[in-house]
């Protein structure tokens, strides 16, 4: 695995060097751009963070669009993140294309957007960004210390020097000493980056028809959990913290597209578990399963929201500066 990681390391080094030296040109979108990304492969909480940011700007009547690569898109050309975000933010355009420079041009010139959010944008350096946000999952923030495929790092830790804000996500799942250790290591690479901590707050239960339940409904319920996400363990832990009795855990690869055989497997596991009150999945999974019940067992998603537990004022100061830029440009 170490040998296999060396060509990857060389490619990343050359690519970053070409942007740092100006060999590859960085394009300006004409409006402020905020990037939300990570250092490691897997789920660090980008979708809840992007949703939080989009809602923050919409609450202030700022026209905001989301740009993403569209990795794992289905036959309709739309991936699970886009489907989930559309359900949560119906008035926020989401443009998916590997060419995010072209998407930015469409968002600004045709849709008249005032700010752009780059989803999973840390490694996408072709667009100039006004705010660079890097997410670190507090449970394993540094990808076991090695680049892919030996570890989970998509870039070396020194790349943190590009970040304006570092957010430790799922900070409630580790102790204070662990958080302090992570912060110290981050500051070793980038002492100027703002440090924030966040958690994923369970928001509600939702089904494919739009019905809503309070998360308290899960207490003492017998459920089978289904997920095709980057961090299923965090989903399981959150479900258990709400008092649910997990009868079974079915995990699929990240961005999994559900087929008829998968639905049969879920139904079989739910039946084998005995009396099952619900099949519980994530918002991303519900967007693809898209049925209110499987063989009479109701299917609910557990929607989560980002909650900044430390550094919210600093975060909003940065965002207010973006609003000031927009306001000034309108004069």
Written description of the protein model:
The protein is built from nine helices and 13 strands. With 331 residues, the protein is α/β, with parallel strands linked by helices. The protein has two domains: 14-201 and 307-329, Rossmann fold (3-Layer(aba) Sandwich), CATH 3.40.50.300; 202-304, Rossmann fold (3-Layer(aba) Sandwich). Strands 1, 2, 3, 4, 5, 6, 7, 8, 9, 10, 11, 12 and 13 form a 13-stranded mixed sheet that branches. Helix 3 (80-88) packs across helix 8. The longest helix has 19 residues, at 2-20. The model has no long low-confidence stretch (mean pLDDT 94).
Total beta strands: 13
Order of helix and strand elements from N to C terminus? HEHEHEHEEEHEEEHEHEHEEH
- The CATH architecture assignment of the largest domain turns out to be 3-Layer(aba) Sandwich
What amount of the residues lies in strands? 15-25%
Total tally of structural domains: 2
CATH topology of the largest domain, by name, is Rossmann fold
Overall residue-averaged pLDDT value: 94
Shape: globular
Q: What structural class results from the helix and strand content? A: alpha/beta
* N- to C-terminal distance: 56 Å
Gyration radius, in Å: 20 Å
Low-confidence stretches: none
Helix content: 25-40%
The biggest sheet, with number of strands, parallel, antiparallel or mixed sense and barrel status, is: 13 strands, mixed
- Look at the structure and name the CATH superfamily of the largest domain: P-loop containing nucleotide triphosphate hydrolases
Topology:
Blueprint: H1 2-20, E1 33-38, H2 46-58, E2 64-68, H3 80-88, E3 94-96, H4 100-109, E4 115-119, E5 131-137, E6 165-169, H5 176-189, E7 194-206, E8 212-213, E9 222-227, H6 232-241, E10 245-251, H7 260-272, E11 278-282, H8 283-289, E12 293-294, E13 297-310, H9 312-329
Parallel strand pairs: 1-4, 1-5, 2-3, 2-4, 5-6, 6-7, 9-10, 9-11, 11-13
Antiparallel strand pairs: 7-8, 7-13, 12-13
Helix pairs in contact: 3-8
């Amino acid at each position: 695995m170490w040998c296999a990681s060396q060509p990857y390391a060389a490619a990343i080094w050359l690519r970053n060097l070409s942007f740092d030296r100006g060999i590859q040109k960085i394009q300006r979108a004409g409006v402020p751009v905020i990037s939300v990304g990570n250092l490691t492969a897997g789920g660090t909480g980008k979708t809840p963070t992007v949703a939080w940011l989009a809602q923050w700007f919409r609450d202030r009547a700022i026209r905001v669009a989301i740009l993403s690569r569209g990795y794992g898109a289905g036959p309709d050309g739309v991936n699970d993140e886009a489907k989930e975000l559309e359900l949560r933010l119906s008035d926020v355009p989401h443009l998916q294309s590997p060419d995010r420079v072209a998407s930015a041009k469409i968002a600004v010139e045709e849709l008249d957007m005032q700010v752009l959010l780059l989803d999973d944008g840390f490694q996408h350096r072709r667009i100039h960004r006004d705010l660079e946000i890097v997410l670190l999952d507090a449970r394993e923030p540094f990808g076991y210390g090695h680049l892919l495929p030996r570890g989970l790092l998509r870039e070396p830790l020194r790349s943190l020097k590009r970040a304006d804000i570092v957010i430790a996500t799922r900070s409630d799942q580790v102790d204070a000493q662990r958080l302090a250790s992570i912060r110290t290591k981050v500051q070793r690479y980038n002492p100027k980056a703002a440090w924030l901590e966040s958690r994923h707050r369970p928001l509600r239960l939702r089904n494919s028809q739009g019905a809503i339940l309070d998360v308290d409904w899960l207490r003492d319920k017998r459920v089978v959990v289904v997920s095709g996400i980057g961090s299923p363990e965090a989903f399981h832990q959150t479900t258990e913290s709400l008092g649910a009795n997990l009868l079974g855990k079915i995990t699929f690869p990240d961005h999994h597209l559900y087929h008829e055989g998968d639905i049969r497997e879920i139904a079989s596991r739910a039946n084998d578990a005995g009396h099952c009150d619900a099949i519980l999945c994530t918002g991303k999974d519900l967007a693809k399963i898209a049925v209110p019940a499987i063989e009479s067992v109701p299917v609910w998603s557990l929607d989560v929201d980002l909650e900044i537990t430390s550094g919210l004022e600093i975060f909003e100061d940065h965002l207010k500066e973006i609003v000031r830029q927009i306001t000034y440009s309108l004069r």
